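So, could you explain the following?
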Amino acid sequence: MIREWANGRRGLSEMYAELFTAVFGVPFTASSPVGSDQLGDDDAPATQNGAAELADRLKASVVVDGQLIELFESQTQSLRLLDRQLGAARLLAQTEAHIVQMTELLRYSLPGGHRSALGAAIAEAAALAGWQALDLGDPAGAWRHHETAKAAAYESGNVVILAHVTAQQAYALLDAEQHEHALPLVTQALTAARGKVPNLLWSWLSAVQAEAAAARGEEQQTRQAIDRAADVLPSDPVDPELPFVVLDEVHLMRWRGHCLARLGSAEAVHDLRSALADLDPSFTRAAAALHCDLALTHSVRGDHQEARAEAQTAEQLAARTGSARQHRRITTLIASGNTHRCP
């Protein structure tokens, strides 16, 4: 149908004209089909329609200014906050529609500062969509969203955002059990970002590297990276320029505990318990991950009763947010027999 519309062989119905007007922000009207026999050899009508359409698209993109971009970024932040509590199942479609809207404006934006800023906004929204796809157990979808994020980050020329979305893409590889490829991707992001990003992001990148190293069982590199993350973490970890990075001492303790749990270290219990005690209750999905890590650590130590209790709590929290990712981790843990096949 799209091909027929584009070539002028099919007219828009009133329903599609209204939908297109709402989505693209420029007027579409219902029209009668124009067949090739009516056009003959003269393609002037199609050319004129194409020129008019381009003019309309460019006119619509003129509305992109600093205030509109701030509104887009505020919408992305609202989706982030909702995602922490509600999970991706309820929000991914909204995030994807948000990206489509911005991408359509970018496609027809002329070069300049506003185009670059819009590219940065798209990159972070696409990275959020990628994270939500991971939460729904779709690493392939997460990879595609992060490819969109990287392309938009290149468009923006923003080194900080490019480093963030590149490193986060490694989680698609980790969830797809492609551990050998995840660590080099994060290391590439770190190398490109060295000396060019704020300490808060450098700390976050180091923690991602620690997790990728832990997935490969590389204990020394894991500990070095997580220690580096702690060393550079700012005393005030709130940076309005980095709304996509949520990292403080509690979250870093949680991250350290997760890495140590993956390595089978008994030290993980202390870190995980400490993080759980101080975790903001709005981070429902993070709490599910904490309980899952505790179940793993207790099972390694032979504390199977405690492991069962932690796995059950993790499952309840994962169900609340619809997190397929955490549910898969818990199911794998139970299936392995590490919790004595807890229900």
